[in-house]
Amino acid sequence: MSKIYFYYSAMNAGKSTVLLQSSYNYQERGMNTLVLTPALDERFGAGKVKSRIGLEADARIFGAADNLLDLARAEAAKRPLACVLVDEAQFMSRAQVHQLTDIADVLRIPVLCYGLRTDFQGNLFEGSQWLLAWADNLIELKTICHCGRKATMVLRLDAGGKALKEGAQVEIGGNDRYLSVCRRHYKESLAK
């Protein structure tokens, strides 16, 4: 039985690095992978997954209206797929996560998803919520707060470095806008 794996963390834990390494491992053994990335994240160029340490690979872009089962089925018709990997999985809809379960259960292709668990307000993203509910394996990737404790929360910062409490759930950015911290420092930053 093929499974769905959800690798989740706060920002800067190496999710994209692990995704790229996993894809490389399959390809090194002569197996094909399908790497998917959401259209709304173009920080590194459209159709690219890039890690902060410089690794990168081409990826198939998907939008909110795309059926991921249909994308995988079409790709598998061209070449056998050994694995589907999804970057920034938090941005998927409930329907798309359900489609991933069909990739694993019907097409019998393992699915590896990588994403944030919560947003800057501590709320679950839709894709993360349904991956936490439906994935076969949940794997936490860890990063650390400036105090040395495990970082589990993400702060969104304004131009002056102050933590923001309100705003749209999705606002693409990197280290210039977000900071991973432990829960204690998250609460302290929001209290200021």
List the keywords.
about 190 residues, alpha/beta, Rossmann fold, 6-stranded parallel β-sheet, two-stranded antiparallel ribbon, 5 helices, 12 strands, about 30% helix
What does this 3D model show about the protein?
It is built from five helices and twelve strands. 29% of the residues lie in helices and 26% in strands. The longest helix has 14 residues, at 15-28. α2 runs parallel beside α3 (94-105) and α3 runs parallel beside α4. It has helices at residues 15-28, 68-78, 94-105, 126-134, 183-191, and strands at 4-9, 32-38, 48-50, 56-58, 60-62, 81-86, 111-116, 137-140, 143-144, 150-151, 153-156, 178-181. A six-stranded parallel beta sheet has the order 5-2-6-7-1-8, sandwiched between helices. The radius of gyration is 17 Å and the shape is elongated. The model has no long low-confidence stretch (mean pLDDT 90). The chain has 192 residues and is an alpha/beta fold. The protein has one domain (4-142): 3-Layer(aba) Sandwich (Rossmann fold). α3 (94-105) links the parallel β6 (81-86) and β7.
Secondary structure: elements and pairs:
Elements: E1 4-9, H1 15-28, E2 32-38, E3 48-50, E4 56-58, E5 60-62, H2 68-78, E6 81-86, H3 94-105, E7 111-116, H4 126-134, E8 137-140, E9 143-144, E10 150-151, E11 153-156, E12 178-181, H5 183-191
Helix pairs in contact: 2-3, 3-4
Helix content: 25-40%
Q: Write the CATH architecture name.
A: 3-Layer(aba) Sandwich
Strand order of the largest sheet: 5-2-6-7-1-8
Strand-residue proportion: 25-35%
